[in-house]
Amino acid sequence: MHKERRAGNGNLSEGTINEQVVAVRMLEEFLGGPTPACAITKADMLNYKRALMDTPTNYRLRFPGKTLPEAITANAKLENPHKVLSPQTINIKWLTHIGTIMGWCVANDLIEANPARGVKVATKKGKSEPTRVPFNQDDLQRIFGNELFSDPKSFETKQWSLLLALYTGARSSSEIARIKLSDIFQEQSVNVIHLEDASKNVRSKRLVPVHRDLIDLGFLDHVEALRKQGKRRLFWDWEPEDKINRWFLRTFKPQVGISDSRKVFHSFRHSLKTELAKRGVNRDVSDLITGHKDQAESGTYIHDASVTMIAAMNEGLNRANFNLKLPRKINLYV
């Protein structure tokens, strides 16, 4: 299926492929092992949906070696069980992926009907509370005012990853984790980061200017130092893929006193979008920075012929001022 979809749609990302592989593995664990598509029934999918509603988040990390049903049982026995998958995650990720795969099987005459069609967790209709919200100014001061950020000379993966999350509007920690040193260069005399390995869609693969605050903190010097060490990736020690996300949510966020469950790693992205709007950055330019619009079609969005896309994004991004009160030191690694 993936070979066919890649041939017909070059935008099929590695992230989507990996999620679909995981979705199949999870269903197989629930069914007790590899199962022919033709043997999977609507009842199986309905029972699977109910099981997902009891499945703890990151169950393979929380319960190493256990299958999905075993993790559900183990979690239920805990005095303080881990949070379970949200209806949105179940619907958007795990059930949708299975539905897509089964739909392909139908289209290729492998099965007669899609047993996953219409199977989803019921959610509340109407306006609901947002599941993710931006960090406010107090939150940002708690995070970046922590002693972890007291000395730029000591900044490594943890510090730079949170700073890049805030100043690039990256969609996820994994998008940042994939940055290679070769993705950081100058374009039209502007220092940029090329998020070419972004995992979501073609709009996610974009250039983002390096904010002057990052430059003042020594980011480019840090990059050069890593190049001299022969490193290839900016975050060469970031393994596994959710390493920083887990540390931030489980350790650092509670440490700095942020308890709101809606404030997660993705909230850095919301914080940048909010700040750009507050500073009056043109919506089209903001969307180019954050990947809501395709930069390959940038001519549609930059209306002043004398201003290039890169220049417009650089000027707009540098309007963002989070007042972090971080030390400003240049050429730290020389």
What does this molecule look like?
It comes from Devosia rhodophyticola. This is Site-specific integrase. Keywords: DNA integration, DNA recombination, DNA-binding. Residues 130-314 form the Tyr recombinase domain. 46% of the residues lie in helices and 4% in strands. It has 334 residues and is mainly alpha-helical. The chain has 2 domains: 2-107, no CATH class; 137-317, hpI Integrase, Chain A. Helix 2 (14-31) packs across helix 6, helix 8 (157-168) crosses helix 13 and helix 14 packs across helix 15 (309-317).
Task: Report a brief summary of the structure.
46% of the residues lie in helices and 4% in strands. It is mainly alpha-helical and 334 residues long. The protein has two domains: 2-107, no CATH class; 137-317, Intergrase catalytic core (hpI Integrase, Chain A), CATH 1.10.443.10.
Which secondary structure elements does this structure contain, and how are they paired or packed?
Elements: H1 2-8, H2 14-31, H3 42-52, H4 59-62, H5 68-77, H6 87-107, H7 137-144, H8 157-168, H9 173-177, E1 184-187, E2 190-195, E3 206-209, H10 212-216, H11 219-228, H12 243-255, H13 267-278, H14 283-290, H15 309-317
Helix pairs in contact: 2-6, 8-13, 14-15
Please give the share of residues in helix: 40-55%
Low-confidence runs: 330-334
**What is the total number of structural domains?**
2
CATH domain class of the largest domain: Mainly Alpha
Domain Tyr recombinase: 130-314
Family: Belongs to the 'phage' integrase family.
Protein name: Site-specific integrase
InterPro entries: DNA_brk_join_enz (IPR011010), Integrase-like_cat_sf (IPR013762), Integrase_catalytic (IPR002104), Integrase_recombinase_N (IPR010998), Tyrosine_recombinase_XerCD (IPR050090)
